[in-house]
Amino acid sequence: MKIYAYTLPQVPERKGWIKIGQSKEKTVEKRIKAQLSQARLKYETVFAESALAGKRGISDKEIHQYLVERGFERLVEQGYEPGTSEWFKCSTEDLKNALEFLRQKYINEDKRQELSKKFYEELRNWYYWATEEQYQGLLVEREPDPDHALRIIVRLLLIFFLKEKGLVPTELFDKNWIDENLKENEEHGYYNAILRNLFFHCLNTQHEDRDKRDKLKYRKLMKNYGVIKEFLYKKTPFLNGGRFNEHPGDDFALSNKYFLNETEEAVTIKELRGRFRIRGLITILKDYKYTLDETDDTEFIDPEFIGKVFESLLACIKADNMETRQRITSSYYTPREIVYSMVNEALDSYFESIGRPVDENHLLRCAILDPACGSGAFPCGVMNAIMKRIDPNKTLPQSERYTKKLEILRNVIYGVDIQPMAVQISTLRLFLSLLQEVTPSDNARDNFGIKPLPNLDYKFIVADTLRGIDGYDFFFYEHQDEFNQLVDLKKEYFRESDVTEKNKIKTRIETLERELAEQSENKQIESLYKWGHSDTKASESFDSRWMFGIEKFDFVIGNPPYLGEDEHKFIFEPYKKTPLGEKFYRGKMDIFYFFFHAGLDLLKEKGVLAFITSNYYITADGAYKLREDMYNRSEIIKLINFNELKIFESALGQHNIITLLRRTDSPDNVITKQSITKRKGKANTEILKAILSDSDEATVYTTIDRGSLFDSESMYIRFSAGNGIDSILDKIAKNGHLLGFLFVTNQGVVPGALTFSKEHALKYPKIKAEKMLRFLFIPKECCMKYAVLIQGRTLISLNLFLRIATFADISVKRKAPKNCCTLM
Q: Which domain does 49 fall in, by range?
């Protein structure tokens, strides 16, 4: 493609304006002549240049967006919608600058994506390599710890960020120094003598405790004990925060090669069904540069980057088959632009609804929950958004910014996730945010200028948010004094860094929880006590009063998991018996529907919920109860429908939507803002910024009243503009008959059944189609005769169609020839 521009020298009112468009490489002149054919105007081509940027092309709309954002005037043409004109008051030099800016930006994005891919794959392969070693090593002795290798990665990453601040000696990771100071032929010497001492007896031990008694272990593995002690004791800070608490599985020692191998070792990994060349973890981590500031620099690993990589790594580990595992790349993370937009929209909507200014006083006293926090995108987004409002230009001293962030952590942010390592990664990200505000010193007695990190044990919980406890409200109010004591104790624990005092507070918390559990006849409360706020296993029940000391939140925000029931019935079965399931379970639903219901339960009156999910719930039959609950208990403030635009590269089949709603028992006839984009392909930073700021020329922005938003007995959620299918469906509803009136139906298209499989090939030998073909192209006349099509999606099942196709001797092809439709 080429970006081109032309002028109309003979048209006075176009003087100083250029029209900017795009065309195929060799058809620029032809395209311009076609545009001007009726007017027969003379033109002058002033610019025509390839718009390739790295692996992708730049569109004329992106150039337009760039010019609009920088204040260049855009022509308002009669008969055209505002914001659609291709005429701009600018020079060709301005156009060149725009193209060069976008070209460099996308080249950098490609480089960063390559860096992300490489980093993710190296950590993923190392994780499986180390985990398989542990499973083999502990098979007879005891059950292996599945999170052991992940904890090592998390801890070493935190250390490498500290190392960039000069807070951990680089010698501890230098192979020559290690060889000089550890005894030879000690296979597990590095993990035991260096890393375990660094993790558990230095970073997790106060300096005064180090001085009282010598706690270094594994002296027999050391050649030069005095040198190692000097570097470990005298040159590393005490961190606190729990990331270096010792777990039972940490006593499994990986051999030196897993950390120090500089040459790649060819390893077969069963879980990934392949052979990979893998280096030691220290060697891998030393190959990258680190910064605590979130940046788009193509060379640096920053905290957001860590979130992206771990989100994908956790998804890979959780995948239930090898094929899925192999497909996962480093792009599961919620984009920064979406996180910030959702957080800020939620903040503005909430404080507007309660009639309070969005100032520091109120911001630091609201409570925000992410019920599926993953690797911390939304908790960190909340931290950054609030700090941006408190200190927009970063004029506060670092020490004061640290204090403000600490207050946000203490009062505002709460998180839950069912995966223990997700919680650890979320807290790691927040710790890195705190460490941004640290200026190191050389004074060991002053802990090198580092304030001990807070304890987030009672702020980020490993639990299943959807398994709430019902029917103990009376018990809660009857023991309000004891629960208030728990709240006070947990606040004390948050800020306590002295190990002895921490243990005393924790003992008092456990004692009080045991006494409460003994007075209750509810088995779920007993299970909460027995769980004991573990960070290695998920609680089977969730209750915000017990876990956080909070009954209702001001905000619930996040990106809950999407999981359809069709292929995961075994996962949904236990939820049917929960309080949520008994109220809201409906066949063929998605797991994220439950998160909406739970979010509404957890919100205060006028509290705000903001989720990004798939958009199928707006019309899916399985989401009827969800829409009904939204109608009864909320006011929908805003819907941003991304439609065919792909937000998550690793989930290209999804169609996403942002839902912003206000919890209320007395819904008013509010006006809902709606956005629906006409864009397709993959989203990028510029496109997302434009859509979310209501300035994208390919997105329709409109409003709709509550009476029109919920449509028919099924309570479908309608968009008032930008979606032509609505008018078609309205006509069908008025003039047609429901399918249930003509036939007995209980199953629509099952997505997993849309692939032409090996079994299909054997069963229907006359069908000419490639095996595992995802899209089937069939003649239009056959579509009209045998299937009902709406937006290219057939209402006929694949098996039924294949039977018809065999009978009709239809050829199914990979590429869609003319006069063909797609069976999807």
A: 2-90
